[in-house]
Structure prediction request, 355 residues.
Amino acid sequence: MLDRYWEGSVERISPEAPVPVLRLASQWDRPGGAANVAVNVAGLQGQPTLVTLLGDDEAGDRLAQLLQRAGVQLDAVRSTERVTTQKIRAVCRRQQLLRVDVERDSPAQDPTTLHERVATRLPAHRWVLLSDYGKGALRDCGGLLARIAALGAHAIVDPKGSDFERYRGAWLLKPNEAEARAVAGAWADEADFARRMQALREQLALEHLLVTRGEQGMTHFCATRAPRTLRATAREVYDLSGAGDTVAAALAVALAEGQTLDDAMAFANAAAGVVVGKFGTATASREEITRELAAAGVSRERNGRRARPERRDGVSAPERRHRAIDMPDGVDAVHAALAPESSAAPSWTPTPSSI
Prediction:
């Protein structure tokens, strides 16, 4: 989807209705939704491919232009029968006055076409991000998840809605706390939360369940150890737009580079801490994440550990660098977030488990 911003000043109330009059001073566009995930991957020096649905319209052309500029390879299924989803925000002093959504349900055959397009790329991609924005493209993604698993790839799913059954068999599911509560029910305390989340993980045959919890950080559940919570870094929050996208992108990039899941969680947690301090949909650079980790006292040389090969429980990351596909549902789209294949040294300080 395309995020558009109309910024200006408000000096009076309209005589036609009790609403502020925005005197437009500037406009800018940013990739949003699944496109924001892909741009975040590129910003972390990944090599992302975005497989998505776009309208054959001006907004689709503009989004394609922005993605190319950001270093994202776009594989779009385009049609005159759909419109490119837009979220237009009227802003004054960096405060949102109004949001206008431009969207329309996609033709019924679009999800099938999209899934087939992703399937053709799977042999070359070991990590796949499915970003669901509730627009329909991932409504029936069970078959795609099965194909991903059959090829030995790993699917990371950022879900939407209260029906998680379609994500059955994902390698990792990343709901936020509200989404987890809508599916598993309200919990009385942390012990009840842990019981409900472990039951949900088992019910959906997930290897990993990672619940993002705002100020409380994120909590990881798997079959081989007790739940682990990684606390968020205390900081002033400016804008939560796109923070979940950044977590998904940073997690995928870190795992594809060979970090353990624990270290990838720390990397993603720090990335989210960076973007919530920025206005609108934003990205985090490796340099910013390095500073965030340093501020939190996280060192890449902690414990003197070396990289470990992947274990069956998936807590340790793969030995090889992998490409990754990210499949979004914003126009309901599919992203392919490809990890760096270059042997050049990264500008951030890797953890001991990095390759």
